[in-house]
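Sample A.
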Amino acid sequence: MDKQTTLGFVLIALVLMIWMWWSSPRPAQQLQNGKQTSGQRKDSTAAINQPAEKKFEESRVQPQQLSQKDSLGKFFSRAAIGNESVVTIESDLYIAEVSTKGGTLKSFELKNYKTWDQHPVQLIKNTSSGDLSLLFTSTEGKLINTKGLFFAAALPPTRSVRLTGNDEYTIDLVLNAGTGRVIKTLHFKNNAYALDVGIKLVGMQDIIANYEYQLIWENGIRYVEHSSTDESQAAEAFLYAGGEVTTINASSPGETPISNTNGATEWVATRSKYFAVVLLSEDKKAQGGYLEGRCEAAPNQGIVEHYSIGLKVPFKNAMEETARFTLFLGPLDYDIIKGFNRGLDHIMSLGWSWIRPITEYAFIPLFKLLHMFIANYGIVIILFSIIIKIVLHPLTRSSMKSMKKMQALQPMMEEIRTKFKDDPNQVNIQIMKLYKDYGVNPAGGCLPLLLQMPILYALYALFSNSIQLRQADFVWWIKDLSVPDVIFDLPLTLPLVGVHNISGLALMMGITMFIQTKMTTTDPRQKAMVWMMPVMMTLIFNSLPSGLNLYYFVFNLLAIGQQVFINKQHDNVPLQKVSEKKRSGGIMNALTKNLPKRPKP
């Protein structure tokens, strides 16, 4: 691309940006002196016909300046007044709180997991109002979100329930709306992170408009890790319909992606790095889904992503209508997620689609098998590294033997370069002929490494996202295999690379990589690579989980031992030219058969 074309594209982009800024709508005026401006007020008919994607955002706006009758209409204004009661349900896995205000889950603490600062993991982001509500438009044109309305419920006198063994508990929450009723049923089971949710609408045919209501989870999931940036990299929202997954990712501050679909929908979900919230349709009545994300800047250069999810349910104006759902609130444990048998494994970070089978059907079963006999996950990773090294031994052995032959040919190659220093083309011809004579494949050292790349990336996906490694202690300073093992902080952040502390295992991995590279590099022109690659990889791996760095450190140690063994086997073996028959086939013959012959003097 020449300079004029490049300048043209830059000018076009500049004009487009100026035009978009000029034509973009200005922020709405704020409330002044307790009164709304005319631009903010919407008449009742607008609420009925508003696009679905506007509903979540508007449902979050509290109409403080409007009377309850104006904002909720005659059907729901009375339900806005009441006294809140909370019941606590404790199982072996969690402690949940259900509120009669909104009929929502106000709290959902996981008993077997802790936050980075050792508090119980709380998955509900907005514990003041809770989550899991209904959203619909009334026939009066009012946008109704049930999270602010009071439900009636028969609660136990102690306001608490303890589930053990095979115990179950059901609570019916009833919202009265004029002549109609909304009945939300929550069914809890011990030893399960999922709860059954039932919705029954009785006599609502003259109250709900637009032939639809939505079951929504508005506030996403609470962050519980030390680094919000690291957690945001894994945060997404998902929709599963027709065997295909739709995802949205609000990865930059100010970004607000939206997905609003219609048609038979299996489930919607949102996740953080290690936990998830999922709404599943159990009776195949959901006919659409809604995903909305937004990203906000956080202190210390962090970012936080928020996701709202919802299932659309058709309303047929019958006297009584029901729908059944499952709400999952819990860890991204592969066995639990896979156990639903509903395609939920799509929300697991197991690598690219062509990498996933390696992670799912080889590495996860092996990892689980080792842990059955060994409790310490650090030792599991070490044994895992040894097994993978044994499996890859034929590939790496071939690579090392090829590199060893290349090292032995270096003196001859230097002679050729000196002899034909004024004829680069002839240098290439003679070196290729040398490869052919001695049966050396110049790609032999690289091809096995390329074949290992899918395996190594699958391991990266496994160790970077496995909840089993979260807060798993190993030895000495390595207290959590899911985060970098920082041994000391730097006084400043290194420019360009953004490194502000040093990981012990990443440093050890870099040292072993340096030793390995030095053992295999004899070409004087590649001396810079001896230190350049280890330094670069150390900086890259410095911010990765210590479990992953432990794997690569052990893998490199084994590779060094393997290289020493190969060297001892071949150090005293003299180079021999291959027979003419062997030369006639293979990759080297293909590379050299069409080389131009050197003209006779």
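Sample B.
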Amino acid sequence: MRSADHLVRQMEASGVEVIFGIPGGANMPFYDAILNSEIKSILVRHEQEAAHAAEGYAKIKGRPGICSGTSGPGATNLITGLVDAAMDSVPVVGITGQVVRAFMGTDAFQEADIVGLVLPHIKYAVTVKDAKRLSQEFVNAYSIAMSNRPGPALLDIPRDVMQEEVDDDLTPLEPEPYFRRSPPEPDVGAIIEAAKLLSMAEKPVILCGGGVIYSGSSAEILELAEHLACPIVTTTMGKSAVPENHPLVLGVVGMHGRVEADLAVSESDVTLCVGTRLSDRAVGPAKEFEKNRKIIHIDIDPSEFGKNARPTVALPGDAKHVLRELVEYLKHIAVRRPESPLVQRLRDIGAAYEEYMLSLDDGRNLRSWKVVSLLSQELPPETIVTTGVGQHQMWAQLFWKAKTPGSWITSGGLGTMGFGLPAAFGAKAAAPDRPVVDLDGDGSFLMTCQTLACVTDYELPVVTVIFDNRTLGMVRQWQDMFYNKRYKDVDYTDRTDLVKLSEAFGVEGIRVESYEELLANVKRAIRNNQAITIDVPVDRGELVFPMVPPGRWLTDVKLPPGFEVSERILSVGR
């Protein structure tokens, strides 16, 4: 049988159900083999969308998403999504076609060294030149994408390799030893030291990254926090790691973090960091984060220890396993603490912030934060939310309360505009029975709006809410705050009709003028499992606050104009 047919049979045996991609000359044998399989191939309109859809699929399914493109431009169009997946630790396997072996290195038509281009950014990439190795290399790539810290892998396959005959033995293959490494194990002494630090801390805080979601350790995080009576904060990628309606969960920390979450970290004497890179957008300058506090860092990837902030105690390993040991030891050396006045003080500050922001509604313009807050209150708890990148993304992380673990999907590390809609489509392909809502900006939406054609073609309805301010909002905010309001190439004209654009792809579009109209249409679409694009006009002059200026520590936060944290609130629990 052809090696392409053998590959597809092995993919089926590995559990692959869906592929997002576009066929072309170099990967046509692969698509020809898919035709006679149980795998569903989804024809996207641009390969970047294929990669983002595979990310959304992977985040919901908990296993690698598959994307495909032909050689040359098809392959290079996947790069943005693959690097995005690498930055956010998302398991994706890209499969690209390549020119035939005899033409490689000759600048043949549509030839590009895709392996050389992506190798610095992904876990594994290989050009498969031996047809007998093709299925084995897929199993290796599929395994390593999920092994330890998840991430992307790539198989580049010359067309003639796919067409070459191989043995028809269809026995399911196992990954080779290098590709199935076990998680590292922490030193028992380090676990004991960490437990002692937490038991003696006056103001401990737990900081959750995306690794908490992948490890499925939400229950262990909550048990530990409840034992210590300490607040939980999350990174942008860690949002939805724990239910945000839990009284100990304060929300996202960082540049555009919740004011109470930033205060919790800045005032902490011990911070337990779980499954996070501790990026500058989360904790600011590492030297400031290291001051006046002990840092305990749990991560499956030991290379993260000290890469940004130096931990007092490093605990390598799977977060669920390490946390379980930490909780059990902590129970032996420290009794469960009573409710903390510190947590209540921080919650009061957060409530005051929300109350102030919602009071700014002047009745004339729809406010982005109120739109998100109302949607959070009204939509079902199992709703999956994706976002584009920009101001709307920050409003979403501030005011959307994720109630189901793993229900928040966004582009954090790379900050990829255009991510939201294809990621929502991929998530819907993974969970067709759950509501999926893309909270998007007009700038991000216009980059990948053609994904609506897939929403229609494959009857996978998503709700797209566009925060329409006719500008690249976050770029404009930086020009406003740091470039003396010198606006350049950020504002759009009003001539693009987003409603008609949506309708051109076969998706209902509507422009709303009130919160009631917005909620009624969103709930109708979810009730009827119907796709809809909702254009929400918002003020171009909106600025997202809180905001910590780049390179500054969390205490240098700029609060919304007119909002002050009263001394009465600040004094409680000191």
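B remarks: The chain is about 40% helix and 15% strand. The chain has a mean pLDDT of 95.
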